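User: Round two. Same drill as before: sequence, then structure, for each protein.

Assistant: Same drill it is. First protein:
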Amino acid sequence: MGIQHWLTSTDTTAFKIRFFTNPANPIHEKVIAGFLLLSVFSIIFYLLVYYMPKIIRGFFKLNPLYWTVVTFGCTGIICKIADRLPSNLRKAGYGLDPIWSAWMELFEETTEMCLPLLCALGFVQFARMSQIEHQKKID
């Protein structure tokens, strides 16, 4: 069980709008969950603002590390869209054919499994680039 289940005694998760709008949830749980969400979003926003120019420059200079970083981000976004699309279509009254639903689930799970691989690839690329930079300084 993740931390989202530790933070609430009355609801299933503390990281959804429904948790904050439900009057049955205690105010102290809402404050703690809100503080955690605000902290995480602030850190993510800061890192994006700080590193985005470097990522964009590296991407257009065809640096493999930054291509991996951009691929990781895009894969995460596509994975989330594929995860939510069938249920959003169902709520809108447009149910997917079971075959298409199975293909969508396969696509979502496959892209989700690629995320740790892309992360590991990025770490390996960063380590190799650091070794090369260090070797250049020595020579």
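Second protein:
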Amino acid sequence: MQIPLRPSPRETTEAMVRNIARELAEIEQAISRCKGDRIAEPRLTGTWMAHLLISSKELLHNLLIDTARRPQRINAPE
């Protein structure tokens, strides 16, 4: 019998932004080192764009959670 996985704690929005910026800086450095390479440059550019798309989706999801109004408890009539 498999034990269900516990959800991992959600990364804070601030930490997520820092990580995304660091990862994109690493990709941009790699792109600058392979400027003019007809194979590596387009592949790294594609990686950079894919990373931006995935990261922006996850960041938007995090921001929606952070800014969502919390449900209010409804008390039953007495």
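The radius of gyration is 20 Å.

User: Perfect.
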